Protein backbone atom coordinates (compact mmCIF):
# COMPACT_ATOMS: atom_id res chain seq x y z
CA UNK A 1 0.00 0.00 0.00
CA UNK A 2 1.40 3.40 -0.99
CA UNK A 3 0.88 5.98 1.82
CA UNK A 4 -1.47 8.86 0.88
CA UNK A 5 1.35 11.44 1.04
CA UNK A 6 3.34 9.44 -1.55
CA UNK A 7 0.56 8.93 -4.10
CA UNK A 8 0.68 12.27 -5.88
CA UNK A 9 3.14 13.52 -8.46
CA UNK A 10 2.65 17.25 -8.66
CA UNK A 11 2.85 18.61 -12.24
CA UNK A 12 5.12 21.66 -12.17
CA UNK A 13 3.95 23.12 -15.48
CA UNK A 14 6.02 26.29 -15.61
CA UNK A 15 8.95 27.38 -17.80
CA UNK A 16 10.80 28.74 -14.72
CA UNK A 17 13.34 26.53 -12.86
CA UNK A 18 13.38 28.84 -9.84
CA UNK A 19 9.60 28.78 -9.50
CA UNK A 20 9.52 24.99 -9.97
CA UNK A 21 12.24 24.42 -7.38
CA UNK A 22 10.64 26.73 -4.83
CA UNK A 23 7.29 24.97 -5.17
CA UNK A 24 8.89 21.51 -5.07
CA UNK A 25 10.70 22.41 -1.85
CA UNK A 26 7.49 23.70 -0.25
CA UNK A 27 5.57 20.59 -1.25
CA UNK A 28 8.16 18.04 -0.10
CA UNK A 29 6.52 15.79 2.50
CA UNK A 30 3.04 16.45 1.09
CA UNK A 31 3.50 14.85 -2.36
CA UNK A 32 5.23 11.70 -3.56
CA UNK A 33 7.21 13.28 -6.36
CA UNK A 34 7.41 16.00 -8.99
CA UNK A 35 6.54 15.89 -12.65
CA UNK A 36 8.44 18.05 -15.12
CA UNK A 37 6.89 18.00 -18.57
CA UNK A 38 7.07 19.53 -22.00
CA UNK A 39 6.55 23.16 -21.03
CA UNK A 40 9.38 22.99 -18.51
CA UNK A 41 11.74 20.87 -20.63
CA UNK A 42 11.27 22.95 -23.80
CA UNK A 43 12.03 26.14 -21.86
CA UNK A 44 14.73 25.02 -19.44
CA UNK A 45 16.17 21.74 -20.80
CA UNK A 46 18.32 19.25 -18.87
CA UNK A 47 20.12 22.04 -16.97
CA UNK A 48 16.77 23.29 -15.74
CA UNK A 49 15.85 19.78 -14.58
CA UNK A 50 19.13 19.53 -12.65
CA UNK A 51 18.51 22.95 -11.10
CA UNK A 52 15.18 21.72 -9.74
CA UNK A 53 16.18 18.24 -8.59
CA UNK A 54 19.64 18.81 -7.12
CA UNK A 55 19.48 17.93 -3.42
CA UNK A 56 15.70 17.51 -3.60
CA UNK A 57 14.56 14.30 -1.94
CA UNK A 58 11.64 13.58 -4.29
CA UNK A 59 11.45 11.20 -7.27
CA UNK A 60 11.36 12.80 -10.71
CA UNK A 61 8.72 11.95 -13.31
CA UNK A 62 10.10 13.24 -16.61
CA UNK A 63 7.02 13.55 -18.83
CA UNK A 64 8.44 14.01 -22.32
CA UNK A 65 5.75 12.02 -24.18
CA UNK A 66 8.29 10.76 -26.72
CA UNK A 67 6.83 9.76 -30.10
CA UNK A 68 9.16 9.09 -33.04
CA UNK A 69 10.85 6.23 -34.86
CA UNK A 70 12.43 3.57 -32.59
CA UNK A 71 16.03 4.70 -33.12
CA UNK A 72 15.24 8.32 -32.24
CA UNK A 73 13.19 7.48 -29.15
CA UNK A 74 15.92 5.09 -27.92
CA UNK A 75 18.44 7.92 -28.34
CA UNK A 76 16.23 10.33 -26.41
CA UNK A 77 15.92 7.82 -23.56
CA UNK A 78 19.71 7.42 -23.46
CA UNK A 79 20.15 11.22 -23.50
CA UNK A 80 17.90 11.90 -20.48
CA UNK A 81 18.94 8.95 -18.32
CA UNK A 82 21.77 10.88 -16.56
CA UNK A 83 18.98 13.06 -15.05
CA UNK A 84 18.02 9.93 -13.05
CA UNK A 85 14.27 10.09 -13.63
CA UNK A 86 12.11 7.54 -11.83
CA UNK A 87 9.55 7.64 -14.68
CA UNK A 88 9.68 8.64 -18.36
CA UNK A 89 6.69 8.81 -20.73
CA UNK A 90 6.40 7.84 -24.40
CA UNK A 91 3.33 7.59 -26.63
CA UNK A 92 1.98 4.05 -27.10
CA UNK A 93 0.80 5.14 -30.57
CA UNK A 94 4.48 5.02 -31.58
CA UNK A 95 3.98 1.25 -31.73
CA UNK A 96 5.49 -1.90 -30.25
CA UNK A 97 8.90 -1.63 -31.93
CA UNK A 98 9.35 1.92 -30.61
CA UNK A 99 8.40 0.89 -27.08
CA UNK A 100 10.70 -2.15 -27.16
CA UNK A 101 13.60 0.00 -28.38
CA UNK A 102 12.95 2.43 -25.52
CA UNK A 103 12.88 -0.39 -22.95
CA UNK A 104 16.13 -1.85 -24.30
CA UNK A 105 17.80 1.58 -24.24
CA UNK A 106 16.70 2.10 -20.63
CA UNK A 107 18.05 -1.32 -19.59
CA UNK A 108 21.42 -0.83 -21.27
CA UNK A 109 21.95 2.76 -20.15
CA UNK A 110 20.98 2.02 -16.55
CA UNK A 111 23.64 -0.69 -16.44
CA UNK A 112 26.26 1.55 -18.08
CA UNK A 113 25.59 4.48 -15.73
CA UNK A 114 25.05 2.36 -12.61
CA UNK A 115 21.66 4.02 -12.07
CA UNK A 116 18.30 2.47 -11.20
CA UNK A 117 16.34 1.80 -14.38
CA UNK A 118 13.54 4.32 -14.80
CA UNK A 119 10.02 2.99 -15.25
CA UNK A 120 8.76 3.60 -18.77
CA UNK A 121 5.11 4.62 -19.02
CA UNK A 122 3.07 4.59 -22.22
CA UNK A 123 0.62 7.43 -22.77
CA UNK A 124 -2.67 5.94 -24.03
CA UNK A 125 -5.53 8.37 -24.82
CA UNK A 126 -4.98 11.85 -23.41
CA UNK A 127 -7.33 12.79 -20.58
CA UNK A 128 -8.25 15.96 -22.49
CA UNK A 129 -9.87 13.83 -25.22
CA UNK A 130 -13.50 12.67 -25.33
CA UNK A 131 -14.98 9.98 -27.57
CA UNK A 132 -15.76 12.73 -30.14
CA UNK A 133 -12.15 13.95 -30.10
CA UNK A 134 -11.02 10.38 -30.67
CA UNK A 135 -13.44 10.00 -33.59
CA UNK A 136 -12.07 13.24 -35.08
CA UNK A 137 -8.63 11.62 -35.38
CA UNK A 138 -10.10 8.53 -37.05
CA UNK A 139 -10.58 6.21 -34.07
CA UNK A 140 -14.22 5.12 -34.12
CA UNK A 141 -14.43 3.08 -30.94
CA UNK A 142 -15.12 3.72 -27.27
CA UNK A 143 -12.27 5.44 -25.41
CA UNK A 144 -12.03 2.55 -22.93
CA UNK A 145 -11.51 0.01 -25.74
CA UNK A 146 -8.76 2.10 -27.32
CA UNK A 147 -7.02 2.57 -23.95
CA UNK A 148 -7.24 -1.18 -23.22
CA UNK A 149 -5.72 -2.03 -26.62
CA UNK A 150 -2.85 0.45 -26.22
CA UNK A 151 -2.16 -0.61 -22.63
CA UNK A 152 -1.96 -4.25 -23.67
CA UNK A 153 0.47 -3.33 -26.46
CA UNK A 154 2.62 -1.43 -23.94
CA UNK A 155 2.59 -4.36 -21.53
CA UNK A 156 3.64 -6.86 -24.19
CA UNK A 157 6.37 -4.47 -25.45
CA UNK A 158 7.98 -4.40 -22.00
CA UNK A 159 6.82 -1.08 -20.57
CA UNK A 160 6.26 -0.82 -16.82
CA UNK A 161 2.92 0.91 -16.95
CA UNK A 162 0.72 3.43 -18.71
CA UNK A 163 -0.74 6.88 -18.28
CA UNK A 164 -4.53 6.67 -18.48
CA UNK A 165 -7.57 8.50 -17.16
CA UNK A 166 -9.21 7.39 -13.91
CA UNK A 167 -12.18 6.10 -15.92
CA UNK A 168 -10.10 3.25 -17.36
CA UNK A 169 -8.26 2.21 -14.17
CA UNK A 170 -10.58 -0.55 -12.99
CA UNK A 171 -10.55 -2.37 -16.33
CA UNK A 172 -6.77 -2.00 -16.79
CA UNK A 173 -6.08 -3.19 -13.26
CA UNK A 174 -8.08 -6.37 -13.93
CA UNK A 175 -6.51 -6.79 -17.37
CA UNK A 176 -2.86 -6.21 -16.46
CA UNK A 177 -2.53 -7.26 -12.83
CA UNK A 178 -1.44 -5.58 -9.59
CA UNK A 179 2.14 -4.67 -10.56
CA UNK A 180 1.51 -2.69 -13.74
CA UNK A 181 1.88 1.02 -12.92
CA UNK A 182 -1.18 3.16 -13.62
CA UNK A 183 -0.06 6.82 -13.55
CA UNK A 184 -3.28 8.79 -13.58
CA UNK A 185 -3.88 12.45 -14.49
CA UNK A 186 -7.36 13.94 -14.93
CA UNK A 187 -7.66 14.16 -11.15
CA UNK A 188 -10.00 16.79 -9.78
CA UNK A 189 -11.03 17.15 -6.14
CA UNK A 190 -14.65 18.32 -5.88
CA UNK A 191 -13.38 21.77 -4.85
CA UNK A 192 -11.23 22.27 -8.02
CA UNK A 193 -12.15 23.35 -11.55
CA UNK A 194 -11.93 20.80 -14.41
CA UNK A 195 -10.02 23.21 -16.73
CA UNK A 196 -9.31 21.42 -20.04
CA UNK A 197 -9.58 17.90 -18.58
CA UNK A 198 -12.52 15.80 -19.79
CA UNK A 199 -12.19 12.30 -18.26
CA UNK A 200 -11.87 13.14 -14.56
CA UNK A 201 -12.38 11.70 -11.07
CA UNK A 202 -11.62 12.73 -7.49
CA UNK A 203 -8.31 11.56 -5.96
CA UNK A 204 -9.96 9.01 -3.64
CA UNK A 205 -12.21 7.60 -6.39
CA UNK A 206 -9.21 7.18 -8.72
CA UNK A 207 -7.23 5.24 -6.10
CA UNK A 208 -10.27 3.07 -5.33
CA UNK A 209 -10.53 2.38 -9.08
CA UNK A 210 -6.94 1.10 -9.14
CA UNK A 211 -4.63 4.08 -9.81
CA UNK A 212 -1.06 3.53 -8.59
CA UNK A 213 -0.09 7.22 -8.68
CA UNK A 214 -2.03 10.42 -9.27
CA UNK A 215 -0.76 13.30 -11.41
CA UNK A 216 -2.13 16.59 -10.14
CA UNK A 217 -1.17 20.02 -11.39
CA UNK A 218 -3.42 23.07 -11.24
CA UNK A 219 -5.61 22.02 -8.28
CA UNK A 220 -2.37 22.28 -6.25
CA UNK A 221 -0.16 24.73 -8.15
CA UNK A 222 -2.91 27.32 -8.84
CA UNK A 223 -4.37 27.10 -5.34
CA UNK A 224 -3.97 30.19 -3.13
CA UNK A 225 -1.99 27.94 -0.74
CA UNK A 226 -0.48 24.96 -2.64
CA UNK A 227 0.71 23.22 0.55
CA UNK A 228 -2.78 23.40 2.05
CA UNK A 229 -4.28 22.04 -1.22
CA UNK A 230 -1.80 19.13 -1.21
CA UNK A 231 -2.56 18.41 2.45
CA UNK A 232 -6.28 18.46 1.72
CA UNK A 233 -5.74 15.83 -0.99
CA UNK A 234 -3.71 13.66 1.43
CA UNK A 235 -6.51 13.92 4.00
CA UNK A 236 -9.12 12.95 1.41
CA UNK A 237 -6.99 9.95 0.36
CA UNK A 238 -6.50 8.85 3.96
CA UNK A 239 -10.23 9.01 4.77
O1 LIG B 1 1.32 12.28 -19.32
C1 LIG B 1 0.71 13.02 -18.55
O2 LIG B 1 1.17 13.26 -17.43
C2 LIG B 1 -0.62 13.47 -18.95
C3 LIG B 1 -1.35 12.64 -19.78
C4 LIG B 1 -2.71 12.88 -20.01
O3 LIG B 1 -3.42 12.12 -20.68
N1 LIG B 1 -3.27 13.99 -19.45
C5 LIG B 1 -2.56 14.86 -18.66
O4 LIG B 1 -3.14 15.83 -18.16
N2 LIG B 1 -1.21 14.64 -18.46
C6 LIG B 1 -0.41 15.61 -17.69
O5 LIG B 1 -0.90 15.69 -16.35
C7 LIG B 1 -0.87 17.05 -15.89
C8 LIG B 1 -2.26 17.41 -15.44
O6 LIG B 1 -2.26 18.70 -14.95
P1 LIG B 1 -3.58 19.36 -14.34
O7 LIG B 1 -4.66 19.23 -15.37
O8 LIG B 1 -3.17 20.79 -14.10
O9 LIG B 1 -3.90 18.59 -13.09
C9 LIG B 1 -0.31 17.90 -17.01
O10 LIG B 1 1.04 18.16 -16.73
C10 LIG B 1 -0.44 17.04 -18.25
O11 LIG B 1 0.65 17.23 -19.13
Beta-strand portion reads: 15-25%
Q: Please give the oligomerization state of what you see.
A: single chain
Mean pLDDT: 97
Query: Spans with pLDDT under 50 lasting ≥5 residues?
Result: none
The whole-angstrom Rg is 17 Å
Report the top-level CATH class: Alpha Beta
Structural class: alpha/beta
> CATH superfamily, called what?
Aldolase class I
What share of the residues lie within helices?
A: 40-55%
* Hetero ligands: orotidine-5'-monophosphate
Biggest sheet character: 8 strands, parallel, barrel
CATH topology: TIM Barrel
Strand-and-helix sequence, N→C?
EHEHEHEHEHHEHEHEHH
Number of helices: 10
Write a structural description.
The chain is of the alpha/beta class. It has a single domain (4-238), classed as Alpha-Beta Barrel (TIM Barrel). It has ten helices and eight strands. The protein has helices at 17-27, 38-53, 70-80, 96-113, 131-136, 143-156, 169-176, 203-209, 218-221, 226-238; strands at 8-11, 33-36, 60-66, 87-91, 119-123, 161-163, 181-184, 213-216. The protein has an eight-stranded parallel beta barrel with strand order 1-2-3-4-5-6-7-8, surrounded by six helices. The longest helix is centred in the middle third of the chain and has 18 residues, at 96-113. The radius of gyration is 17 Å and the shape is globular. Bound molecules: orotidine-5'-monophosphate. Orotidine-5'-monophosphate binds next to strand 8 and helix 9. It comes from Nitrospirillum iridis. Its EC number is 4.1.1.23. GO terms for molecular function: orotidine-5'-phosphate decarboxylase activity.
